[in-house]
Amino acid sequence: MSSSPAARPPAADGVASRHCIPRYGTGSLADLFPSLLAGLGVPGEVDRLGLELAADRICVLLVDGLGAQALAANSEVAPFLSSMAQRTLTAGFPSTTTVSLSSLGVGVPPGEHGIIGYLMHVPGYDRLMNALTWRLHGPGPKIDLLRELVPEQFQPTPTVFERAAADGIAVTQVAPHLQAGSGLTRAVLRGCEFRPYVSFGDFVDGVATAVRAGRRSLVYAYHGNLDTTGHVRGPSSYAWLLELAHVDRLAATIAEHLPPDAALIVTADHGMVELTDRVDFDTTEVLRDGVRQLGGEPRARHVYTHDGAAADVAATWREYLGADFEVVTRAEAIGRGWFGPTVTPRIAETIGDLVVVAGGLRGVVRTGAEPLESILIGLHGSLTPAEMNVPLCTFGP
Length: 397
Description:
The chain is an alpha/beta fold. It is built from 18 helices and 18 strands. The longest helix is centred in the middle third of the chain and has 19 residues, at 238-256.
């Protein structure tokens, strides 16, 4: 890459009604690890994806923010990833990290694991919960949420890693140190030996060492720099393109260091689009009327309304935002299967009275309450193919 061409992002869909609905049960992130466990011989697990891997050792490399369409559009920058056997999965809804990692780690859709957005309502609290940091959002008393909302109780279903370890599989997570013991890790990724990494070489060495443990092994490796670059510089920037090249080299180097009986799976938690139009909730009074709390993120909002105000708020938001957004009730979102075929009553309480998804390149920001998120260039969360479709690349036996 001697010059500085822009990355080629997929075209965003400008019509809100043209959604990419999650393929829960047949082709979503929630189906990946159960399918891998089935291949490793874990009783009770089903190969929902038909992977039929002939490997006793598996590494899953999750590249945060790598959409399937963006990878396809820039295949020459990622020759190794592009040479791997290719399939496409969908993220869950919303197409965001907290939801996707939860679906991945528990092996069920959001309606069953309970992480339904970046910022979400939890009954009994007057502030929203940030599931990524496991803290209450915004100003207010300091509360130790790890003690009050114990992650293992908030999400009690055994994770895929616990199920694998119970069958004698050596399970390791290779990830940044800050994720060790975090609320989200304890809730949906628990059951692994945790190995933090400090550099490219340390990442590869961690994977190569862990994948050789035991008679059967499963390694989950997380890489987040592409997502950070896309958020800050945009997924059409040259910086993003350079980072994609680094990700490709990382995957190739991991593959070079795998034993012969190991497979490498590369996937992602969501794609990304670049916002060109921001609607500011904090400075638009008409949008605030009747709204108690605003959760989610700019591309997928949970709107929690005052009692009896949902219908009026929905009508106002539809009129003001126009055809690039779709505003649906909680019951409609559940009925359409956005959160999965099953949504437990406890989890339904946490979903917005209204759910608002963005089409095109627009979003609803909060410059006062969410100043950092409001200035990011690249965002995700909605149901467009660019955000929802993630790669499933396979290398090995």
